[in-house]
Design goal:
The protein is of the alpha/beta class and 287 residues long. The protein has one domain (3-286): TIM Barrel (Alpha-Beta Barrel), CATH 3.20.20. 44% of the residues lie in helices and 14% in strands. It contains 13 helices and eight strands. Strand 4, helix 6 (127-142) and strand 5 (147-151) form a beta-alpha-beta unit. Helix 6 (127-142) packs across helix 7 (161-171). The protein starts with 9 loop residues before the first strand and ends with a helix.
Amino acid sequence: MTILTRTDLAFSYLQLTGSAWQEPVRYTLEERLAALAENGCASMGMNVEELETFLSGNSADKLRGLLSEYGVGLQELEVLFGWNAGPEDGGPGPEAEAHFFDLAVAAGIPAVKSCAVYPPGTEMPPLEVLTERFGAMCDRAAARGLNVSLEAMAVLPGFTYQVASDIIVAADRPNAGLLIDMWHLFRDPTGIGAIEQLTGAQIAGVEFADGPSAPSPDLMDEALGGRLLPGEGDFDITGLLHTLDAKGVDLTPSVEVLSTDLRALPLGENVARTAAAVRACLDKARG
């Protein structure tokens, strides 16, 4: 099997909250699970702060019971920052990372999503330093039975897809891979070229989204509220899927369409429209 023959579908965390980034979550966990189950979706992402809050007042068994009741899994815990910072850089320290891993293990989540942030004007360490730090973090995750996906964000272009891809290749950890978020990938000038060097096993996730060929003057605004459903924009999603298929990428397709228009819809309609759009893109790519 490859991604083109998969029939399951996952949703990233933010699209299901009904809220913009850093705003209070509008929908309960049960409401999200119900909407996914009604639309035949297999899994969703979870935010570390929300998971921590849930487990502070409920047992892990209650969480697992909810997931079993709706037949929906938790596929990833987001977002692990700080692995790229050494002690001299004010990194969060080993306790914060260990706590993140503890939460993932307690909830039965198999993978953690990670990222490095370098705002404009911030100096990024050399690639070999980032590779060493990332590899060490992956080893600590592996000791807990966890996989790691590495994400790059086009809105903060220092840590590009090329940098992230180079780290994956150089670190060469079996439990680590690059996360392909289509919006960030196509908005990053290095994006498409960066995945050429990767094997199928070095790709950890694929999140669908679309956009117009010309980026918005405010990339952050587009990233958080102006993405389009797959097939409604100009991104070469079919070409990307053929590339991934040729590499033998066999992952559950995921989706992260952050859109003010979708957030205005009832959750069930948001999920239904999005799932239909992803499935139509997959059908088109299958020919």
